[in-house]
Each structure stands twice: as C-alpha cells, then as structure tokens.
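Dataset card, provenance and construction

Sequences and ligand SMILES were collected as paired inputs. For each pair, a complete structure of the chain with the small molecule in place was predicted and serialized as structure tokens. The example below shows a pair involving zinc ion. Curators did not alter the output after generation; any descriptive sentences attached to a record were derived from the structure itself.
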Amino acid sequence: MRASELSEAPFRILPEVTAENEHFWRGGARNELCFLRCRQCRTWIHPPAPVCPRCLAKDLAVEAVSGRARVVTFTVNHQPWIPGFPPPYVIAIVELPEQAGLRLTTQLVGIPPEDVRIDLEVRVVFERHGDVYLPLFEPVVGA
Ligand SMILES: [Zn+2]
C-alpha cells in the first residue's frame, strides 16, 4: 500500500475480507459492484450466503450489477463518532434496480447533506484502501 493512498482517503473502519465476501469488497478493482447470484432462479444474494434464500440452490455465481441505485432512506451524522472522520456525512440505505429489496447501507459522497433526498438517483464510486474497495454512492449528474 502506498502512503499516498492512505493520505488521500479518510480514515475508515475496514471490513474483514473473507473468501465468502471477497467479490464484494474487491470488485472495485475492476470498477464493478459484485454480488452472488443464484444460477437457478437468478436471485441476487446479499449479504453473501452459501445457499440461495429463495430456492435453496447452492449453484451460485458472482455477477456485477449496473452500479446504479436510489436512496431509500438516509441520516446525516453530525457526531464525531470516528476519529479523523469529521462530520457531517450522510449514511444512506440505497436500493439497486436489479432486484426489489437488494439494498446496501453506504455513505453518500459528492453532495452536501442538505441536498440529499429520498429517491435520489445515485451510482457507485469506490474508495480504495489497500486491496479493499469500499462502495460509496454519489449523485447521478443530470438525473
Ligand atoms: Zn435461487
């Protein structure tokens, strides 16, 4: 990891990358937001699980989604909970168009907190920390 990568990105509490979730945290290396998907019934699966929750098949594969999403709900954090990560910042739940209920809790970037709205169209942008790529979301310009 180069020092410049760390100095440019704010401090984060990083996830534990495992064999089961590596596709999700490292897909950003290819600029792809990836999930497990059932090859039998085509259900997207998140968080990762060994079995499809819909049809119980174990025939799962990693696939990339479009990276588009819309804001379902959000909160503006004004408390300095995390050292070196100054508020305010926007924590949001976004839903992906690929499947009803396919949602991520994420941070919105590139928009002042007061401008965030429910149903705002956003797209994924990755923030790199070594070999972990955190999926954050920014507004779609012109949406
Ligand atoms: Zn299935």
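Derived descriptions for this record:
Helices lie at 3-8, 22-26.
The radius of gyration is 16 Å.
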